[in-house]
Each structure stands twice: as structure tokens, then as C-alpha cells.
Design goal:
This is Protein CopB. With 74 residues, the chain is mostly helical. Helix content is 57%, strand content 0%.
């Protein structure tokens, strides 16, 4: 009888591990999952900023929020 590979994981185990990794920043900071729907013009602008700067969508949103926070003293 063949011995089962102990490193084999179920899909739900792999997904749980992936979600945990996705929520922890390489610097050890925790991230928050935030899902939203954007208008077409906002999506076009977001994608243009991603393309122009070579950033991720997350970074574009984080930079924009940081700028707005400065502007409104938050």
C-alpha cells in the first residue's frame, strides 16, 4: 500500500494558508481586506496610474489615501 504524501494539502488548507500570507506584510504589518466597486472613470484612472508608475493597485490606493489624509489633516 502506498504511503500518502504528508505534504499534500486539501484545497481549503492551501486557501487558508494563502489568505494568511496575503494579510501579513513582508515587514510584519497586518493588512486589512477591503473590497469595493469603482466607477468606470475611477477604474480607468486607477489602471492608468498603475501602468504609468509600475505600482500595484494596492500601492496606488495607499498613496492616494495618504495624500488625502495629509490634505485633510487626518
Amino acid at each position: 500500500m502506498p504511503v500518502e504524501n504528508p505534504k499534500k494539502r486539501t484545497a481549503s488548507e492551501r486557501q487558508r494558508i494563502w489568505r494568511h500570507r496575503a494579510l501579513v506584510d513582508p515587514d510584519g504589518l497586518n493588512r486589512t481586506r477591503f473590497q469595493l466597486f469603482l466607477s468606470e472613470p475611477a477604474t480607468t484612472t486607477l489602471l492608468a496610474l498603475v501602468q504609468k508608475n509600475g505600482w500595484t493597485k494596492r500601492r496606488v490606493v495607499e498613496e492616494a489615501l495618504a495624500e488625502l489624509g495629509k490634505k485633510f489633516h487626518v
